[in-house]
Fold Nucleotidyltransferase.
Amino acid sequence: MSKPTIIIQKEDTLEAALVKLDANPRMQTLMIEENGKIIGTLTDGDVRRGLIKGLDKSNTVKDFMHLSFTFLIKGKYEPEKIKFIKENKIKIVPELHEDHSLSRLINFNEVKTILPIDAIIMAGGKGTRLMPLTENTPKPMLKIGEQPIMEYNVDLLKQFGISHLTISVKYLADQIKTYFGNGLEKEIDIQYVSEDVPLGTIGAVKQIKHFYNDYILVMNSDLLTNINLETMFKELNSKDADMIVATTDYKVQIPYGVIEAEGNQIKALKEKPTYTYYSNAGIYIFKKELVALIPDNSFFNATDLLEKLIELNKLVLHYPIKNYWLDIGKHVDFEKAQNDVKNINFK
């Protein structure tokens, strides 16, 4: 495979580097490689500073390059370094493999953070409650505003630096595959698994042969949300929990005075109280090793995995969503989404 055009060798001339910089005006950064490892960077600013010192285009790249550059390691969650990047307004940051070979360049104008997560979107359902809209169009491809429902979710994953996505498909799968392809336009690697028979809301995860990270996110394809995935992941990571489940609050107001009693003795009276319950929002993050608990080729829901973890005394958390969230399951939800998308920020 040929080298990416943003990589140059340290013994190359500045003139060769300028040709590559001119060919990559969007990036404005070259990665300096030696023996397959990234050892420095070269930007327009480095070139200007070198020329001011009296160097010229016949000098080699090593005379201009910046050695103390900021980088991230693929698969690691580095919040303090990401905070430094944001505070210092560093736009382009290389992500390196453990051996310091280049994984990708990250544009912090386009992402909020980098989470060490593989994502799976479950998009195989028929969406029968939305018939006839879903008669010839899979529910994830129904448009909310200017784009399909699921495209909002793919964009959400990209915002949080998630670069590996698998989409589980079944009903009218070709439409989804044709639209998203391999993810090149979204700058996110997209793979597909097919459910020959229905496998529930998480069973298809067992079909994935390789994961790139130690954490997995599973979400339904029919959600419209701007959930903060970083704060959700931080909660999981800080407590070393096995799984975290996004939840939405559901308030119930009792229209009468409620008596609290011990036996037949009244201890308190609450006038028309409101009780808050938390319901499953269809977004889960969990440790990769938990995939072993999902049976092969069997109908298995995320709630089945949740109950299994509780039975095994694993640490399972819930994360109340403070942002916007809507499950588009019925026509009334679909119409609500069309109005909400005009006023909610999903970027």
Notes: The longest strand covers residues 274-287. Residues 118-340 form a domain with the Spore Coat Polysaccharide Biosynthesis Protein SpsA; Chain A fold (CATH 3.90.550.10). Residues 149-159 form the longest helix (11 residues).
